[in-house]
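Changelog-linked ticket: magnesium ion example.
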Amino acid sequence: MSTGLVKVILDYDGTLTAEEDQVGELAERSIGTLSREILKAPLSQVRDDYYRTRAMLLAQPHKYWWEVNGGVASYSDEGAFIANTTTILIMLRTNPSYTQAVGDHFPEAEYDPIVDCSNYLFHKHTFDLEPHFREATERVLGELMAHPRLEPIILSSSKGDKVRKNMRILGFEQIRVLGDTRQYGIDPSWERQFAHPEQGEGQIFRVDEEHTIDLRRPAYYNALVKEMRDAEKLVVAADTFSMPGALPMMMGIPFLLLKTEYTPAWCEAYVRAHPYGEVLPDLGLLPERVEALI
Ligand SMILES: [Mg+2]
């Protein structure tokens, strides 16, 4: 039997927390900030635009995605927070006066002004939200911490300070946080190739007729490779697929997709069919599933 260290990389939002319970408040706070600070447009107008855009997206979610540098970072229906982010992005992009106002407010964009704006809203408002931990979160983290071979690490594309603040509430401030790993950060200039079991070498692979996965995420790739250096094995667990799951799964790292009320059927089917993918029906089952993998 092997005795090496196994790092269990756990996504934060939606995996350890019930983001489906928080998204309404996140949306309202974002709408308020857009109206007051950024768009300087009436609250009722921004709110109407938001909910109209959201309904349009969710009627045909494969046609809308979080686009970063021309690539599909995540489809709009993969998670509750992603549906919110994508709604904001599409709403801002499809209204010229909104696009102009965002450009004026974020003149020195890191990605582009609209992506920077949605990142700003996400970081600002999720930092202030009361965490709604999933029922099993405290027990699962405790079991992983107590296990002699396992190290839980929390992954977040949010800034690490939010996660650290909320982990303190549970008394788990000693858990390492891999923050700001930019799972959404698609870089078209990155040339690394991956091998798909049926589709051969490439960087963008087809999931089904309506969806592809884009693996050109060098920041996240480098974070995973760095974690592998002193570990025998990594396992990644997350509630969404494209951002935290597709890349490790295609690198041969076991990926557990937490099934939630918002998990789309296409994500579940694809993960279930992949040799390194597994669907986790409940967060409470994580320790035993990890045990079976090591
Ligand atoms: Mg998540």
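Closing comment: Example verified and attached. The two ends are 9 Å apart (CA to CA). Residues 11, 13-15, 79, 238-240 surround magnesium ion (CB under 6 Å).
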